[in-house]
Write a structure and sequence with these properties.
The chain has 172 residues and is mainly alpha-helical. The protein has one domain. A two-stranded antiparallel ribbon has the order 1-2. Helix 1 runs antiparallel to helix 2, helix 2 runs parallel beside helix 5 and helix 4 packs antiparallel against helix 5. The protein is elongated, with a radius of gyration of 20 Å.
């Protein structure tokens, strides 16, 4: 069941990559053809405002890149598909590998999350309180995308806690 969930998440994110590529192609084509704005609405919509412009397509690409890159980080960590320094790790026993991972988590990941999670939360809250939006015809309601940062980091921190508990058992 967990494997199906992992696969579904990765499939959705893979679809997100396709959407990202289509947005890039659309922006390049519309820019080359001098089409701007692409769509104009009679009223403002959440996130996109009252028009889809070249700038909002560019903002959308950056936002989608954040979602695709950050939300699956915890899942990738739990699936043990993250980057590591293999020359320290490769020919070790399972117990030694667990100890190396545990030391890495405690020395590097925990201090990182202690510093970055409050900062990410404050970053999102400032955008929400000020109703931050693009000034150049880009996307509005930037707190929505900025909320992905503490969400993704929180999911990664949760994965780190789960992995650290597993490593404590394996290192004994």
């Amino acid at each position: 069941m967990l494997e199906r969930f992992e696969q579904a998440c990765l499939s959705v994110l893979g679809l997100g990559l396709v959407v990202l590529m289509l947005a890039i192609v659309a922006q390049v084509l519309c820019s080359a053809l001098g089409i701007n704005p692409l769509l104009v609405f009679g009223r403002a919509w959440l996130l996109i405002g009252d028009a889809v412009t070249l700038n909002s397509l560019l903002d959308f690409q950056w936002h989608l890149l954040v979602i695709i890159g950050l939300l699956p980080a915890g899942l990738v960590w739990l699936m043990d598909r993250h980057v590591r320094v293999d020359f320290l790790y490769d020919k070790r026993s399972d117990r030694a590998k667990a100890r190396i991972n545990l030391i890495g988590n405690l020395l590097f990941a925990v201090p990182f999350f202690v510093l970055v999670l409050p900062a990410a939360w404050g970053f999102m809250l400032r955008a929400w309180r000020s109703d931050e939006g693009a000034r150049n015809g880009g996307l509005n309601d930037l707190w929505l995308i900025k909320a992905v940062i503490p969400l993704g980091l929180g999911l990664l921190a949760l994965a780190l806690v789960l992995e650290t508990l597993r490593l404590l058992r394996a290192a004994r």
